[in-house]
Structure to design on (315 residues):
């Protein structure tokens, strides 16, 4: 095997995306055994020679998050002990990103802990997309390539963008992202103020911006229970919005989220395949990020710039 050969492995969290990335690159998915012992311990074996190779391990930390994180760590350790020249952790969705600060006494900063674990396991680089908090890049002492999903969303967004569109952030934390999409779509943007009573219950109590008679696009980085999106959609409709769509980079929906989407408050949920998601007959449009991630992998492997991947239709 030639030195620095490209090898792409996948954990079990999102193998369809990994195969799609490999198809884009014209590269076979490298062979590894990833399984569990009866007591649920993870076992990994690299089934081919990767000595001196440039290894990329694709694994989103979606549900069950702890299992998938542990699986990634073990795969990284296996690759390091098999003498890989460089190991890049490709994490389309970076779990624990919401725990990025001490917002109350005696709580951890778990996203920093996950960063430490990845580096300790042997990762030399991280490739991820639309982090919940961009400062998480600073939690790593290794290079982090942080991509945005906006380039893959842009073509579809143009199909309904018009002078009656308003972009809304469903909470204060998403203002920067909402402003960026409003700039892309050349439309006004606004904000929904919310109050969270617990992990699954959200109350939207105020809206800043003009939505009466307009089409609304809610923009957020992720949704799990869909509580924030549905609360914002209900408020927008009560203020006279004609249509309400939501765009999220990571649709990590659980059963509660699917149930809430059945109520019809959202005309459409637009998301990516960064984590496995099934429409289940609901108005969910899934747009693939395989080309975006595949191009980033190729450029990292070839030591080329990834800057143009931040541009709309720029890759």
């Amino acid at each position: 095997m030639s030195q620095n050969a490209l090898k792409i492995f996948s954990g079990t969290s999102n193998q369809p995306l990994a195969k799609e990335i490999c198809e884009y690159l014209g590269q076979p998915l490298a062979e590894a055994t990833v399984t569990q012992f009866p007591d649920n311990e993870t076992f990994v074996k690299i089934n081919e020679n990767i000595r001196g190779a440039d290894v990329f391990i694709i694994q989103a930390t979606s549900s069950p998050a702890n299992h998938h994180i542990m699986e990634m760590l073990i795969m990284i350790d296996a690759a390091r002990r098999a003498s890989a020249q460089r190991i890049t952790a490709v994490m389309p969705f970076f779990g624990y990103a919401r725990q990025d600060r001490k917002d109350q006494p005696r709580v951890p900063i778990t996203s920093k802990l996950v960063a430490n674990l990845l580096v300790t396991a042997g990762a030399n680089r991280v490739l991820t997309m639309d982090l919940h908090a961009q400062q998480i890049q600073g939690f790593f002492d290794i290079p982090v390539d942080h991509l945005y999903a906006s380039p893959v969303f842009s073509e579809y967004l143009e199909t309904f963008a018009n002078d009656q569109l308003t972009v809304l952030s469903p909470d204060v934390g998403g203002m920067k992202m909402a402003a960026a999409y409003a700039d892309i779509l050349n439309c006004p943007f606004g904000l929904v103020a919310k109050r969270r009573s617990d992990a699954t219950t959200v109350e939207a109590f105020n809206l800043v911006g003009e939505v009466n008679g307009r089409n609304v696009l809610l923009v957020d980085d992720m949704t799990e229970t869909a509580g924030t999106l549905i609360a914002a959609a209900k408020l927008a409709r009560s203020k006279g919005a004609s249509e309400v769509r939501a765009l999220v980079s990571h649709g990590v929906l659980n059963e509660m989220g699917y149930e809430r989407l059945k109520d019809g408050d959202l005309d459409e949920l637009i998301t990516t395949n960064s984590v496995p998601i099934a429409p289940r007959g609901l108005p969910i449009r899934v747009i693939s990020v395989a080309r975006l991630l595949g191009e980033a992998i190729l450029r990292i492997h070839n030591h080329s710039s990834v800057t143009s991947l931040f541009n709309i239709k720029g890759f």
The mean pLDDT is 92. The first strand starts at residue 6 and ends at 10. Residues 150-287 form a domain with the Rossmann fold fold (CATH 3.40.50.2020). The CA atoms of residues 65 and 94 lie 10 Å apart.
